[in-house]
Amino acid sequence: MSVEAIQNPWVRGLKNGINTVWELAKVVIPLTILISVLKETGLLGTLAGKMEPLMSLLGLPGEAALALVVGYFVNIYSAIAVILAIELTAKQVTIIAVMITICHGLFLEGAITQKTGVKAFPLALMRVVVSILAGLVVNWLY
After folding, report:
1. Rounded Cα distance, 109 and 119, in Å
2. Model pTM above 0.85
3. Could you tell me if 71 and 19 are in contact, meaning their C-beta atoms sit under 8 angstroms apart?
4. d(CA 4, CA 61)
5. 48-71, pLDDT tens digit by residue?
């Protein structure tokens, strides 16, 4: 086996790794800055206060609503950026992780679902409902 044949996978792997880090950074860094700005201006506190009653049913603070909305409508990586920017316990991170794993990227996956012939809205609604039910169960069992 030649040296080139051995190095080629390493070079490809390094390039793929750098590309992945770049793609994640393009999402995580702006969202982290946005959350920090929302915290400093007090807007995150206002949002959290309004969402607190609903989120408390899931065992989550009001700020976690932002992580769920971002996860539901954007993607998992964006939700992780929000989760990192707010202070959560291991239990709370577990609840959010379960919920977002079940229901994430609704817009993108809805578009893909439509192309397969499945009606996107009922499927998206079912994913949201199952996600919330799973969050309630995890909160109750944890």
Report:
1. 11
2. no
3. no
4. 54
5. 788 899 999 999 999 899 899 888
